[in-house]
């Protein structure tokens, strides 16, 4: 009569052991993370600034996690297509994103097709680099400083225009913030990327523009563009001769720059996030990595900034600028 009782006890014990193993499975997997290749999605085409920073992030993960990292470029809709792929992926740490302020903050307000909210549907891991832009005057303009630009624009409301790489891009929002703070009236001309805009600025058919350091540098050196100020709150070490726009009395408090960051889908396990944060910070502490980013016009971050707060703060700024400029989602 005792045999069934023993069997039941054995079954209960076996079931409990199996349950414990099942519950421990994710914890064991997280402790061993990573134990297979990591897919790092770059939501832009190869060769651009986001791709460049993304590949440096891949190097840092490879080195500091002893991992195989496969970079996959998924361009489309100003970064939204690739970001959506990450948002929809399993939150196990094996599909991550090296992205930018566009799809991680700005495009939500201008792209009706974007279904994710960056402040909710991503797990922020860390800031990798800053993307300072420069407010430049084209070759046909005679102004040499931000104050001269503001004075000219105020004296001629609606006469002048500025270009950006597209509606909802960080340069677009940067230009609208200039208009808002300085109280000037400029027409916005959206381009499909930066190449044609740079050509028009250098050729004198576009008055002003917001472009990256790497694109502007040769034209500034040749005198075919004039740098009026960087969009960061303070000067940038790699171009310290160019003042910050905020140094101009008419643009006091101005600050709106792009950035490059590292994130995963919502719900990444804390242990995985901790390992990824540590790898990013260790990589950014490497002088060789910092030198490469600085040389590319993307000053390295420290790696311990509060990316979640940066996303929320920039989304707040973009939401205000969308209302100010009466930008409608397309």
Short description:
The protein has 330 residues and is α/β, with parallel strands linked by helices. The chain has helices spanning 2-31, 49-65, 80-87, 101-106, 118-121, 146-155, 170-182, 195-203, 213-222, 270-284, 287-295, 307-325; strands at 38-42, 69-73, 95-100, 122-131, 133-137, 161-164, 187-190, 208-212, 226-230, 258-265. The chain has 2 domains: 31-131 and 258-306, D-Maltodextrin-Binding Protein, domain 2 (3-Layer(aba) Sandwich); 133-251, Periplasmic binding protein-like II (D-Maltodextrin-Binding Protein, domain 2, 3-Layer(aba) Sandwich), CATH 3.40.190.
Major sheet: size, sense and barrel closure?
5 strands, mixed
CATH class of the largest domain: Alpha Beta
How many structural domains are formed by the residues? 2
Oligomeric description of these chains: single chain
Lateral arrangement of strands in the main beta sheet: 2-1-3-10-4
CATH superfamily of the largest domain: Bordetella uptake gene, domain 1
Structural class: alpha/beta
Kindly report the CATH topology of the largest domain. Answer: D-Maltodextrin-Binding Protein, domain 2
Q: Low-confidence parts, pLDDT < 50 over ≥5 residues?
A: 1-5
Q: Summarize model confidence as the mean pLDDT.
A: 90
Strand content: 15-25%
The counted number of beta strands is 10
* Measured distance between first and last alpha carbons: 76 Å
Number of helices: 12
Proper CATH architecture of the largest domain: 3-Layer(aba) Sandwich
